[in-house]
Design goal:
The structure holds 2 protein chains of 2 kinds. By secondary structure, chain A is α/β, with parallel strands linked by helices. Chain A has helices spanning 2-6, 15-21, 27-40, 52-64, 75-84, 101-110, 126-134, 147-158, 163-166, 195-206, 214-221, 232-244; strands spanning 24-25, 44-48, 68-72, 89-93, 117-121, 139-142, 169-172, 175-178, 183-186, 189-191, 212-213, 253-256, 260-263. Chain A contains 12 helices and 13 strands. Chain B is rod-shaped and about 155 Å long. Classes of the chains: A alpha/beta, B alpha+beta. Chain B: Residues 244-462 form the Histidine kinase domain.
Chain lengths: 268, 469
């Protein structure tokens, strides 16, 4: 058992300590891979942000990741661009001149436009998030944020509603997860998972090929929006990894240093 | 504003003046009615007397003709308290009576009239007013019978004069009394205003005087004082937070700046640059977390979250957080034993309790994990119900906190000597304490021989049980 081996490693799991025991991908490698991926299907993004520097930084970073970015400097401009449509994800700052971010999203939703929208805001308390999501936002990220976190969330949003969501069986290489029967097999061998481990794997596999951050896991698998301080998620992931990757080849669940986790077919 | 102007502007005075005006109008109406009624009564008496006399005189005339009437009139007219009498021929020549200077053609018409007159027997007297009745007698004679109504005028003067003066006195005294009462009220209001001006100027220790009579001003003063207590406590908390922020955020900020500067000066290779940048990002992430934690504590302490309080089952939250931390505890050599007697309905903010429980378990794992590999220790998490209270206990088997240090452990940014070298921001327990206070509970640190027991006592939300009962 992997966790018995790591028992001697007394300190609470950190990125580097965790990296040694599982397959590990450097963020730069991941970005390159993501870029290659994006070359095939780049995302079209609209960023509505009044801070010129922040907007330029985001445009540069998303372009490096291979995506196409339009910028709008205020709410009205953002709304005009968004109404024309054609975007995969909208990234909307909450406090904007001329028209605030929440009303931009509410206006689009009122017209039946369901383009996924992520709200960026300096207001990070629980009720601010609830207000944001109630206005029609699909995700909420408080400032300041790590770009990897934003990228991971935007990519998760862009693929939302894809064919995978409706599938009852998720597949990555020889790993299969039957959501209806609550069964998991690898190479035909049954793997017994705890309910929480099942949900963790389900979330990772729904976003197969995408980086999933620890905060995303905490929010979507555990439904917590607080900061757990130590990387409790790492231990859960490492236990899951011991069950699905130990004794199989190739490893599927990878740690992306400085970002989170990704489940993917390494052979591809 | 003059002192009088200020008095007149008060609500009390305006109310009083309005009341006074209404009262005066009522009193005036009553007096007017009384006057009118008395006058009517007096007039009717005169009318009856005149009618009696008229009938009597007519009867005498019928019996004895004009001579008998003239004799009778002459006899009566001389009496000192006689009414007015006059008998004339058809062309107006007086035959008998005690009146003179009648207007020309006055006797050409029958009926009731009021006139001013002069008596023949007392021509020096000033003209007086009278009610008179003129009747025609057979043979073109005219008979005038009247009564002086000066009495009526006098009666009117007797009633109206004092009434008007009384009313004037009432208004003047009322206004004076009103000013007096208003001044007393205004004095207390002025006191309150003066104290609140002092408080607004920054002296938060000022309190309104309470006279002890339990009147509405006392009640107002008491509730304002309670509000001031709360504001003072909040301001003190805010000041403490800002002092702490200034002190404790500047330290890591300085470190961050030094590192960046150092890298700029000495970094030679790309790897060194990368390392310096990564450490800068790590340091700023730490700062962000500290800042978030501080904001959360400040919000919880300010009671801001209370608007968003909902009913939830704390047992579920405890179980969820325990499940989240169990693997970490396990890997750190701790057996997390969870005992939950649920359901535990609470009225509060679920996320805050999640964070508080995470902080408690995080601390317990950080400080009580065994040093030697292979050694196992217990970590107890218990959530039980005692009557209508909820008891939450996190008990570890670590080194614990010496009794003398326990009160300090709940303060912000305090990390006790033994733990200086471990990671953490020293905000964990103070956030827990703030969350517990926000929900009306208490937190205490006890010894666990060895180890630390954090005991939290909270009120349950038993509204549905109360309904069922």
């Amino acid at each position: 058992m992997t966790y018995m081996e790591t028992n001697s490693n007394r300190t609470v799991a950190s990125d580097s300590a965790r990296g040694r025991e599982g397959p590990f991908i450097d963020l730069a490698d991941f970005r390159r891979a993501a870029r290659k991926n994006a070359d095939e299907s780049p995302m079209r993004l609209l960023i509505v942000e009044d801070d010129r520097d922040a907007a330029d930084y985001l445009r540069k970073a998303f372009r490096e990741a291979g995506h196409v970015v339009d910028l709008a400097a205020d709410g009205e401009e953002g709304l005009v661009l968004a109404r024309d449509g054609g975007y995969d994800v909208l990234i909307v700052d909450r406090m904007l001149p001329r028209r605030d971010g929440l009303s931009v999203i509410a206006d689009l939703r009122g017209r039946g436009d369901k383009t996924p929208a992520l709200i960026l805001s300096a207001l990070g308390q629980v009720d601010d998030r609830v207000t944001g999501l109630r206005a029609g936002g699909d995700d909420y990220l408080p400032k300041p944020y790590a770009f990897t976190e934003l990228l991971a969330r935007v990519e998760a949003l862009a693929r939302r509603g894809g064919p995978q969501a409706a599938d009852t069986v998720y597949r990555v290489a020889d790993l299969e997860l039957d959501r209806l029967a609550h069964r998991c097999t690898r190479s035909g061998q049954e793997i017994v998972l705890q309910p929480r481990e099942f949900r963790l794997l389900e979330y990772l596999m729904r976003h197969a090929g995408q980086v999933v951050t620890r905060t995303m896991l905490l929010e979507n698998v555990w439904d917590y929006h607080f900061d757990p301080q130590t990387n409790v998620i790492d231990v859960h992931v490492s236990r899951l990894r011991a069950k699905i990757d130990k004794g199989f080849d190739p490893p599927l669940l990878h740690t992306v240093r400085g970002a989170g986790y990704i489940i993917r077919d390494g052979a591809r | 504003m003059t002192a009088l102007g200020k008095l007149i502007r008060t609500t009390a005075f305006k109310l009083l003046a309005a009341y006074l005006i209404i009262f005066a109008l009522f009193a005036g109406s009553v007096i007017a009615y009384l006057g009118w009624h008395t006058q009517r009564l007096v007039t009717r008496q005169a009318v009856e007397a005149i009618e009696n006399d008229t009938r009597f005189m007519q009867a005498q005339f019928e019996r004895g003709g004009i001579n008998r009437l003239v004799n009778l009139v002459n006899r009566r007219a001389g009496a000192p308290d006689a009414g007015l009498l006059l008998v004339t021929s058809f062309n107006g020549d007086p035959l008998a009576g005690n009146m003179m200077n009648l207007p020309l053609n006055f006797l050409d018409k029958q009926g009731w009239r009021e006139i001013s007159y002069v008596r023949t027997d007392d021509s020096a007297a000033p003209p007086s007013r009278a009610l008179v009745h003129v009747v025609f007698l057979p043979g073109e004679y005219r008979l005038l019978i009247g009564r002086d109504v000066v009495e009526r005028e006098e009666l009117r003067q007797i009633i109206i004069g004092p009434a008007v003066w009384g009313l004037a006195l009432l208004v003047v005294l009322g206004m004076a009394g009103g000013l007096f009462i208003t001044r007393r009220v205004l004095k207390r209001i002025d006191q309150m205003t003066a104290i609140s001006d002092g408080i607004m100027a920054g002296d938060l220790s000022g309190r309104l005087a309470v006279s002890g009579t339990g009147d509405e001003f006392d009640r107002l003063a008491l509730s304002l004082n309670a509000m001031l207590d709360r504001i003072e406590a909040l301001m003190a908390g805010l000041k403490e937070v800002s002092d702490n922020i200034a002190h404790d955020l500047k330290t890591p900020l300085t470190r961050l700046r030094n590192r960046a500067e150092d890298a700029l000066r000495t970094a030679a290779s790309e790897d060194e640059w990368r390392l310096a940048t990564e450490r800068t990002i790590e340091e700023s992430d730490g700062l962000i977390r500290t800042f978030d934690a501080l904001l959360m504590i400040a919000r919880a302490e300010a009671g801001q979250a209370s608007a968003k309080m909902l009913r939830f089952d704390l047992a579920e939250t405890v179980a969820g957080v325990a499940e989240l931390y169990e693997p970490v505890a396990d890997e750190s050599g701790l057996d997390l034993k969870t005992e939950i007697a649920g359901p535990l309905p609470m009225h509060g903010v679920r996320e805050l309790f999640g964070q508080a429980l995470a902080n408690l378990l995080d601390n317990a794992i950080k400080y009580s994990a065994p040093e030697t590999p292979g050694e196992r220790r217990e970590l107890d998490l218990r959530a039980t119900r005692i009557g209508d209270r909820l008891r939450l206990v996190v008990a570890d088997r670590g080194p614990g906190i010496p009794e003398a240090d326990r009160p300090r452990a709940l303060e912000r940014f305090v990390r006790l000597e033994a733990s200086r070298t471990r990671p953490g921001f020293g905000l964990g327990l103070s956030l827990v304490a703030a969350v517990v206070r926000l929900h009306g509970g208490t937190l205490s640190l006890e010894g666990n021989d060895p180890g630390l027991r954090v005991v939290i006592d909270l009120p349950l939300d038993l509204s549905d049980e109360a309904e069922a009962a």
